[in-house]
Amino acid sequence: MRTDAPGRPTPSSGKSQFGAPLGHYQLVQEKLATMLADVTTMQLMCMRLAELQARGEDNQTIASMVKMTTSRKALAVCREARDMMGGNGLLLENHVARHLTDMEVISTYEGTDSMQALIVGRAITGKSAFTTNRRER
């Protein structure tokens, strides 16, 4: 991704398919644009949450919504990056596999997005879904 931000990777550099660099294909550019938009959205959400916390306006529901959304979007971005790299996306030397594994662990092992969704759901409905004995029939 060629942006003004330092440290941004330049995907598909040097890799060609059907006689043209991957970055020249419409579908690849669309995927890269979507990935960059998602990463930027996650950054903005985190910055906004940090601003609220700095002002002492901590809100568990907003924090949970940010955690839920960012963990889901980050996993989707990593899966898309792995897919774009084909078999090379599974090699640890390309870092995509490591990031994907990290996001799978956060999503699956820690249950981050599911638990955060329950917190947001409780705020929306006023009912806790954490235990069955609290559910109304």
SSE topology:
Layout: E1 16-17, E2 20-21, H1 26-54, H2 60-84, H3 96-109, H4 112-125
Please, could you describe this protein's structure?
- The chain is mostly helical and 137 residues long.
- It is 60% helix and 3% strand.
- The protein is built from four helices and two strands.
- The chain has helices at residues 26-54, 60-84, 96-109, 112-125, and strands spanning 16-17, 20-21.
- A two-stranded antiparallel ribbon has the order 1-2.
- Helix 2 (60-84) packs antiparallel against helix 4.
- The chain is elongated.
- Residues 4-9 have low confidence and may be disordered.
State the end-to-end CA separation: 51 Å
User: What sort of overall outline do the alpha carbons produce when their principal axes are compared?
Assistant: elongated
How many strand segments?
2
Helix fraction bin? 55-70%
Question: Count of DSSP helices?
Answer: 4
Question: Nearest-angstrom radius of gyration?
Answer: 19 Å
Structural class: mainly alpha
Major sheet: 2 strands, antiparallel
User: Low-confidence segments, ≥5 residues, pLDDT <50?
Assistant: 4-9
* DSSP strand content: under 5%
Overall pLDDT: 83
**Strand arrangement, major sheet:** 1-2
Order of helices and strands: EEHHHH
